[in-house]
Amino acid sequence: MLIRDWEGVALIIGAGDIGKSISDYLLNVSPNLDVIVCGRNLSKNNGIYLDLEDDHSFDSFEKEIALFQKPLRLVINTSGFLHSSSVKPEKRLSHINRSNIIKNFSINSIAPILIAKSIEKFIRPELPFSFASLSARVGSIGDNRLGGWYSYRASKAAQNQFLKTLSIEWSRKFPFSIVSILHPGTCDTKLSKPFQSGVPKQKLFTPSQSTEYLINIISEQKPSDSGKFLAWDRCIIPW
Ligand SMILES: NC(=O)c1ccc[n+]([C@@H]2O[C@H](COP(=O)([O-])OP(=O)(O)OC[C@H]3O[C@@H](n4cnc5c(N)ncnc54)[C@H](OP(=O)(O)O)[C@@H]3O)[C@@H](O)[C@H]2O)c1
After folding, report:
1. How far apart are CA 202 and CA 155, in angstroms?
2. How do residues 10-49 score in pLDDT, each as one tens digit?
3. What DSSP state is assigned to residue 109?
4. In terms of DSSP H, where are the helices of 76-149?
5. Kind and range of the H or E run holding 228
6. Residue 207 phi/psi, 5° resolution?
7. For the segment 202-212, what is each residue's pLDDT rounded down to a tens digit?
8. Residue 118 has pLDDT above 70, yes or no
């Protein structure tokens, strides 16, 4: 279906650089879609506060969705974690520690499947519905040639397994649903900023470039494609 014909409610989870760019893009191109950003750093009045590490926040998120008059048609999870002032991706085994692993898994693996659990009761089985979540190529086990970044890699691989499993359950419950696991390319955002030095300029996308690639992929997917792990250029990434 053409993006401009999408109708209903779209939730963009994660108010980061790619999340905000996707919401701006959809607001421009899809006049019949109510686009709502859900996250912690909300700049607009129509957002829903959601802290993905807080179960109470998920409860109030569900209460907000229950108030919608229009059907939920699209959910894009753009949240993610790679580094903070205290947590850095591991260069080697000696950098591994329990709290870093838990932090990465909490946001990159557990949050996406909890989002799916929260939205499930609002999916209308008779309507097309898309759930897309941003993973990362470095979460591919088959494509891991450089090593390092243990927690980020493993947490994205775990997200992929959660969402592949979800796609199988939802294909039975919701025959018009599509679950997509997407790699946005290397994109100039807060998340990638400290790691951009080795990236050739033409391979570093702006958030709006990644947005166009991702929205085009999401709009092309059919229910029979559900559960695929796809890169920005439509290539299937090995698990
Ligand atoms: N940029 C790249 O090159 C690249 C490459 C591959 C994959 N990805 C993936 O693409 C996705 C989008 O990342 P981005 O590049 O746009 O980075 P970003 O600007 O850092 O966005 C990530 C967002 O996740 C949100 N988030 C983290 N923990 C949260 C929590 N507990 N509750 C609610 N929101 C939370 C952050 O919110 P706060 O601002 O409140 O912390 C942030 O806005 C991520 O999944 C990332 O792994 C990015």
Report:
1. 28
2. 999 999 999 999 999 999 999 999 999 999 988 766 799 9
3. I
4. 98-105, 111-120
5. strand 228-231
6. -55, -35
7. 999 999 999 99
8. yes
- Nearest C-alpha neighbor of 129 from the set 63, 62, 71, 61: 71
* Residues contacting ligand 1 via CB (< 6 Å): 14-19, 39-41, 50-53, 78-81, 107, 134, 136, 183-184, 186-187, 189-192
Reported as half-sphere exposure (CB side, CA atoms, 13 A), residue 230 has a value of 22
Residue with tokens 């991702």: 214
Provide the 3-class DSSP secondary structure of residue 36: strand
Q: Among 43, 79, 102, 199, which residue has the most ligand 1 atoms within 8 Å of its CB, making it the best to mutate?
A: 79
For the record, the structure tokens of 72 come out as 């939920």
Distance CA 158, CA 16 (A): 22
Residue linked to tokens 């939730």: 11
SS3 183: strand
| Angstrom distance (rounded) from CA 147 to CA 18 | 26
Instruction: Please choose from 189, 195, 232 the residue to mutate so as to test ligand 1's pocket, defined by most ligand atoms within 8 A of CB.
Output: 189
- Tell me, in angstroms, the distance from the centre of ligand 1 to residue 14's CA: 6
DSSP state of 178: E
What number of residues does the chain have? Answer: 239
Taking the complete model, does pTM exceed 0.90, yes or no? yes
Q: Which residues pair with 72 in a beta bridge?
A: 9
Atom of ligand 1 nearest to the CA of 207: 16
